[in-house]
Amino acid sequence: MLEIKDIHTYYGMSHILFGLSLTVAQGEVVSLLGRNGVGKTTTLKSVMGIVPPKSGEITFRGQTITKIPTNRMVKLGISYVPDSRRIFADLTVRENLEIAAGIRPGDWTIAKVHTLFPVLKKYENRRGGSLSGGEQQMLSIGRALLGNPDLLILDEPTEGLAPLIVRELEEQILELCSTGISILLAEQNLKSALKLANRCYVLERGQVRFEGTVEALAENEEVRTKYLLA
Amino acid sequence: MDIATLSSQLLIGLSRGMIFFIVAAGLTLIFGVLRITNFAHGSLYMLGAFAAYSVSTSLGHGHYGFWLALLVAPITVMILSLIIERGLLRFIYNRDHLTQMLLTYSLVLIAGDAVKIIWGSEYKSINIPEGLRGSISIWGASLPLYNAFLLLIGPLVALGLWLFLSKTHLGKICRATATDREMVDILGINSTRVFALVFALGGWLAGLGGTLIAPTTTVSMGMDANILIYAFLIVVIGGLGNIWGTLISSIIIGMGEAIGVLLIPSVSIILPYMIAGILLIFRPSGLLKSVW
Ligand SMILES: Nc1ncnc2c1ncn2[C@@H]1O[C@H](COP(=O)(O)OP(=O)(O)OP(=O)(O)O)[C@@H](O)[C@H]1O
Ligand SMILES: [Mg+2]
């Protein structure tokens, strides 16, 4: 469904991704692994058109999206949850959801997001900025789901959260997976990735160094120690 | 000097403050959402006043001249703003502040020349509309009816802006865009359209301010610079992008100016700047929280 072919991405003069390729099939959960600064976020931003690659091609359902502006991605079926969550702090929790709704038709409604994340209903009149980190993450995911994506891109959804919240979020993400949505997930936490993903890519300095099923990665101690410190 | 004189002067100041508010609200919205320092805002206000002059005189100073101008002039300025935004500004959002300032400043020069060419440089005036002539007395203080009308319009505009920003879908998107434009795009909303909308709304407010001031003063070149300085002061004192802060500081500046004229005429011209300076010493980031 998503295919990244040999992309090179730069921030200004600095070359970050060196001919990176990966694919995500329909209904698959794919994890991008790697240490700090290897280019996971940059890969996701390349797909979203936030930092468009200088060369290479990205296709979604056969259509080239390499040069398509960010604000068209939701309409095409791609929603993105950025790493810093980016809640609109001065808007209420409900308003944060409202502005994301109605852009692409589908099953997700605010009520349905509330069933997945009941806490968003409980605090719906609070300022987004007053939520805890975990709650903000749920709000950020809920907001993305309202775009009714076929492909959901998550950037380190469990980063910096307490273990209990991490487990709760993992459950919720697994629940999402069972709806048939495709997910591309950047992770540093190997345990999370193994729990959630079907396949993974291990990155190092802007290149893919390992590609395979989670089982294969779990068995491959060399890759884990070399690229993941795990 | 008696209490009645003082209070009627204060009311006049308050009513001028309402016009400052209307203009500065547009400037602060543009500041808050587009993050552009729009030097041309005063020019839009001036064009609003001249447009109001043309509309109301072309109807031979008739009964409906002013009311028609109140409808048509701000919309004309709004359309012009939209053309400016789509035709020029949208190409420089990712450029540095200096480029943006130079561009909006060049618009100031262009608008000044355009006014000279179209309307000539002699002073113009508009009559106060028939129903709003004369004065009324409020608790013993006499106030021109037109100023009382301004006292009504100001809060109406504030209320309208508040309803728009807090209750409408588009208003919520505007607030979101002010804090994180890229995230708005990520959610599938075209943020440059939001920019266009806000710039047009800001232009409408500038045009409305120009129309409202026209019957109380001479319509002339140079009115752009005067209001621009006041509007900047008000926006900074109020807290960048904060509508309520803008309302409060407009009232302070309007009343401060009025008291100055009455009590210490020799310094009345610089009094608003002194007030601004003092307020900024105590609250360097403005009275209320800036939107970012
Ligand atoms: N805006 C930017 N400008 C310049 N360089 C950047 C920018 N953002 C990231 N980089 C650099 O690009 C490289 C890859 O960063 P990226 O954020 O993609 O890594 P990451 O794998 O997501 O890391 P983390 O696990 O810490 O999130 C890093 O060396 C980083 O310093
Ligand atoms: Mg990252």
Explain the overall architecture.
The complex is a heterodimer of chains A (230) and B (292). Chain A has 230 residues and is α/β, with parallel strands linked by helices. Chain A has 2 domains: 144 residues, P-loop containing nucleotide triphosphate hydrolases (Rossmann fold, 3-Layer(aba) Sandwich); 71 residues, no CATH class. Chain A contains 10 helices and 10 strands. In chain A, the strands form 2 sheets. A 6-stranded mixed β-sheet of chain A has the order 6-7-8-3-9-10, with helices on both faces. Chain A has a 4-stranded antiparallel β-sheet with strand order 2-1-4-5, with helices on one face. In chain B, strands 1-2 form a two-stranded antiparallel sheet. Chain B has one domain. With 292 residues, chain B is mainly alpha-helical. In chain B, a hairpin with a 2-residue loop joins strand 1 and strand 2. Helices cover 71% and strands 3% of the residues of chain B. The model of chain B has no long low-confidence stretch (mean pLDDT 90). Chain B starts with a helix and ends in a 10-residue tail after the last helix. Chain B is built from 11 helices and 2 strands; from the N terminus they run ααααββααααααα. The longest helix of chain B has 32 residues. Chains A and B meet through helix 2 and helix 3 of A and helix 6 and helix 7 of B. Bound molecules: adenosine-5'-triphosphate and magnesium ion. Magnesium ion binds next to helix 1 of chain A. Adenosine-5'-triphosphate binds next to strand 2 and helix 1 of chain A.
